[in-house]
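Researcher: Structure prediction, please.
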Amino acid sequence: MAVILAAELLVFLTGVVFLWKVSVRSGDRPHLVEAARAAKQLETTDCASLSPSGFRTIREVQVFDSRQSCGHDYVVAEVNGTLYRICYEEAEDGRPLWLFAALGAAMWLFTAGILWYVEHKVLKPFDDMTQMTADLAKGSLTRPVREEKNRFFGKFLWGLDMLRENLEDSRQRNLEYQKEKKTLILSLSHDIKTPLSAISLYVRALQRGLYDSEEKRSAVYEGIERNIAEIETYVSQITKSSREDFLQLEVNCREFYLKDVMDKITEYYGEKLGLLQTVFETESCDNLLLRGDADRVSEVMQNVLENAVKYGDGKLVRISFEREEDCCLVQITSSGSSIKESELDNLFDSFYRGSNAKGIPGAGLGLYICRDLMRKMDGDIFAGQKDGLFTVTTVIRMA
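Model: Predicted structure follows.
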């Protein structure tokens, strides 16, 4: 900012000095130049025929007579042996120094004002935000982001605070989940010890031949079977707990237009797949009014398209649409399918990855999250393949 203002001031002062020097140079006085031009014309005409209207400073031209006066300053010129009085009136300089100075000062002040505004409304708030993002990266989530009525960063700060709150909520939910998980494991571990101890005692007694009658041995076998059933009950509880919704995903269902979601999707992936030299075909869609969470639907579409990029052969990705009763079906098809038919039913299970995922990073949660989100919006999602094409169909309810 200081360099810009100093450079502008230097240019301004240089212009002032230049104009001042031009204005004081005597050789550039306009009346002398025009007097010389008038004398030149008098070589071919007389003073009566010479019109002063063709000059800016010349007021009158007459044969010199010391007894007459022209009422103006004049110069005497000899032309063809005759003396002429050329009366003139000094004209003001056409480049007034004060006007240039005023304009230069106004421009300098305007530039200073603009730079001050940029400094206080753009650069300083942005500098303050760098610390906020650093705090979020370090996990400092308790301090709220200070809101400002800034036309440039107001919405960004609001979104940053929403991100902080979501991260804080996610962390709290994760801590609660871990606490419940450990409590459940400890409780079940303690409960399993009792039937295991009983089975261990029964086995030792049988090994030592303490039960000499068939009736007693039958009672022992029944006891062992009863304790095994109890252990199986505890194991089923652990399995059920592990399959519960540990992500706790939330949706906010409301009406939205299909085109609003698809325009954003096609714009981003049109560019991305173009860079990957993948053919990206998109059917035109009716602007249907749907019901669900537009952001979550976009998340599902992005997840499916990312899978198409990761697991396809990079030749073709196509988006098509169908209507079925009160639902809109969005079909995303990719070429190069290599998944087994027997694996299709398990693709949407948590932590499940198909046989074609070897060497490709992932956690096996993407499609599981997609199914959970769609079902919470009263929709669904399923997959199929035919002729080397893998298709994921998303079912969205119409409003």
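Model: The helical segments are 2-24, 30-42, 97-138, 154-207, 214-242, 258-275, 294-311, 366-376.
Researcher: Thanks, that helps.
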